[in-house]
Amino acid sequence: MVIVIGGMIGLGKTTVAEILAEQLGSQVFYESVDDNPILPLFYTSSKEEIEAKRYPFLLQLYFLNSRFKTIKDALQHENNIIDRSIYEDWYFAKRNRDLGRISDLEFEMYEKLLKNMMEELTGLPKKAPDLMVYLKGSFETVLKRIQLRGRSYELDQSLVDYYKFLWENYDDWVLHHYKASKVVMIDMDKYDVRNASDRHEVIQLITQNL
């Protein structure tokens, strides 16, 4: 069984993935952030630099490639947890296209590559997860949790505006467009996984749907 943990940054995806893996005796495959050479450039460059050097498109290609490798690695084992899904990468790419940061042609190429990567082939393990655990929350909760992470560059005003843009359509995408697996939606306005009792309740909500 492969489970993906999705949702806005700051809501506790990595923590939920780790406590769920401990509960199930499985492994976590993490989102590639700290070793991502493009992400700091994307976060800190001027609008003109971002436009000229096409960082949003490069970033989405980087995530697509690393996420696909994660899927292949996870499928070699019986049970695994993936920190964010490749399907959410498409959502991020689309929202950057909506902002004009990714061109229509770049997005078309991205979609064709993703479709080719994710095509299910007879005789090979399926690539879709068995369950998505989607962490949702108010934008106020998102910002509060990001502040607690202590990464100062994540709270630049232009980034806060970008987070708001992503957050506005995230729930709608999961509810009406994501079709790859069953979804368990957890309201992180109600839970703080730094708290032991909240962690226990969240794990119960997930395991009831396995």
From TrEMBL:
The keyword Kinase applies. Residues 3-206 form the Deoxynucleoside kinase domain. InterPro entries: DCK/DGK (IPR002624), Deoxyribonucleoside_kinase (IPR050566), DNK_dom (IPR031314), P-loop_NTPase (IPR027417). Keywords: Kinase, Transferase. This is Deoxynucleoside kinase. It holds the Pfam family dNK. GO terms for molecular function: kinase activity.
